[in-house]
Design goal:
Blueprint (H helix, E strand, L loop, with lengths): L42 H29 L6 E2 L8 H6 L4 H21 L10 E6 L5 H20 L23 E6 L18 E4 L11 H4 L3 E10 L1 H11 L4 E9 L12 H6 L6 H9 L13 H26 L4 E7 L11 E7 L3
Parallel strand pairs: 1-7, 2-3, 2-5, 3-4, 5-6
Antiparallel strand pairs: 6-8, 7-8
Length: 367
C-alpha cells in the first residue's frame, strides 16, 4: 500500500500553520545575505555589515550569559544520568566497543528518565501502554525502554501477590483498562537493517511506520488508538524535527509522558520553533532567534583540538548556553499546555558520552 493510502497519513498535519521553510533550509540573518541581484552590496559595505553583525553577536552573547545564570543557577540543567541495577546486563553485553557502550548508556538513561516521568502520572502501573519512538533507526532506544518496562511489570505483579507473568505480554490480550497489552510504534523515514525490533521486550513485531513525522496523525495509528496511554521517546531529533515531534506527541489526548533529546539546534526554523514566545518575553525576538540558532553550533568547539584557547572555549561555552536556553524555552511552552508539566535535564553528564545531553521530560499530572 502506498504511503498516501495509509490511514494515519495526513501530509503536514504536525507542522505549524506558519511553517513553510523546507527542512534543512537555513534562515539567513546577516543583511548582506539578503541582497538581491538588483541591489548588490559593495565589498566595503559587506565588511562593514559583517563587523556590525559581529557586534550584535557579542551583545547577544552577553544577554545569553545573564539569562542563563538566572535560569540555571548551577550552570547546567539538573543532572539525571540514570543506570538502574537491572539494566547492568545491557551494559555488560554492549561494552566491547566504546561506541557501543556510549550509545547503550545514552539509551538506558533516556529510557529510565522516561520511566521516572511515567511514575508521576496516573498511568504508572498501567498494563496497556503504547510507546512511540520518533526517528527510531534500529530501535535500540525502544529496546532499552522495553527492558525497563519488563522490569516494572514484574515488580507490579509481584507486589500485587500474583506470580510474575512471563513476558512479553501478548498485545492481543485485553486488560482491565479496556485496552490491550503494551505496544511499540517505531517511526522513521529511512529503512534500516539489523533492527532491534525483537528486543523491544513485549511484542515480536512492533508496528513500524516508514514516514516523515510531519505527516503521521497519531490518533489514526491503530496501536495508539487501541490503548489508553501513550509514551513518546526520541534521541537526537535533528533541528526542527524536535518541534515537529513534540507537536505530534502533545497533540494526542492519550499522551502521558515523553522524553525527547534534541540536537542540531542550528537547523531549527523560526516559524516552527516552539520556544519562540518565551524567548521573545526575555527580549530575544526579531533577528535574535536565527542568530541564536547559528551560535548554537559553536558548542562543537568544546571538542576541537584548539579548545584550550580561551577565545575558542568562550565561544564553545556560549554555544552550550544557547542550546540550554533553546530547550528550556521549549519546556516553558509545554508548561503552558493544560495538565502538562515539563523539565529539562541532562540525561548524560560526560562530554565523551555526548555534548547533546539535554532531555525534555514532560508528563501529564495525575487527575
Amino acid at each position: 500500500m502506498a504511503l498516501a493510502e495509509r490511514p494515519y497519513y495526513r501530509q503536514g498535519c504536525n507542522l505549524s500553520q506558519s511553517e513553510t521553510v523546507t527542512e534543512g533550509e537555513q534562515v539567513k540573518t546577516m543583511p548582506e545575505e539578503r541582497e538581491t541581484e538588483d541591489s548588490p552590496i559593495s565589498e566595503a559595505d559587506q565588511i562593514l555589515l559583517r563587523e556590525r553583525e559581529k557586534q550584535r553577536e557579542r551583545e547577544l552573547m552577553e544577554r545569553v550569559e545573564v539569562l542563563h545564570k538566572e535560569v540555571f543557577p548551577s550552570g547546567r540543567p539538573r543532572p539525571s544520568q540514570l543506570y538502574p541495577d537491572h539494566a547492568l546486563p545491557l551494559l555488560d553485553k554492549n561494552s566491547s566497543r566504546p561506541s557501543n557502550r556510549k550509545h547503550t548508556v545514552q539509551n538506558v538513561s533516556l529510557a529510565a528518565n522516561l520511566m521516572e516521568a511515567l511514575d508521576r502520572t496516573a498511568a504508572a502501573s498501567s498494563p496497556s501502554v503504547c510507546v512511540t519512538e520518533l526517528g527510531c533507526g534500529r530501535a535500540n532506544l525502544s529496546a532499552a525502554v522495553g527492558h525497563h518496562m519488563m522490569h516494572r511489570d514484574a515488580l507490579r505483579l509481584t507486589a500485587s501477590g500474583s506470580p510474575p507473568a512471563p513476558t512479553p505480554v501478548d498485545p492481543s490480550v485485553s486488560t482491565e483498562e479496556g485496552g490491550r497489552g503494551h505496544a511499540f510504534v517505531l517511526i522513521d523515514r529511512m529503512r534500516v537493517r539489523r533492527v532491534a525490533d525483537r528486543r523491544c521486550g513485549f511484542i515480536a513485531n512492533p508496528e513500524r511506520i516508514h514516514a516523515d513525522i510531519a505527516d503521521v496523525d497519531m490518533s489514526l495509528v491503530q496501536s495508539v488508538s487501541e490503548r489508553p496511554h501513550l509514551l513518546g521517546v526520541a534521541k537526537h531529533l535533528c533541528g526542527c524535527a524536535t518541534d515537529i515531534g513534540l507537536r505530534m506527541l502533545l497533540g494526542s489526548d492519550r499522551i502521558r509522558a515523553l522524553a525527547v533529546a534534541p540536537c542540531c539546534h542550528h537547523r531549527c526554523q523560526v516559524n516552527g520553533y516552539l520556544g519562540k514566545g518565551w524567548l521573545e518575553q526575555q527580549g530575544m525576538g526579531g533577528d535574535d532567534l536565527p542568530r541564536l540558532f547559528r551560535i548554537a553550533q559553536w558548542q562543537s568547539m568544546l571538542l576541537h583540538p584548539s579548545a584550550s584557547d580561551p577565545e575558542v572555549r568562550r565561544k564553545g561555552e556560549a554555544g552550550r548556553q544557547v542550546k540550554d536556553l533553546l530547550d528550556h524555552a521549549r519546556c516553558m511552552h509545554i508548561r503552558t499546555l493544560p495538565g502538562l508539566s515539563c523539565e529539562l535535564v541532562d540525561f548524560v553528564t560526560e562530554d565523551d558520552l555526548s555534548l547533546e545531553r539535554r532531555c525534555i521530560l514532560a508528563w501529564r499530572e495525575e487527575e
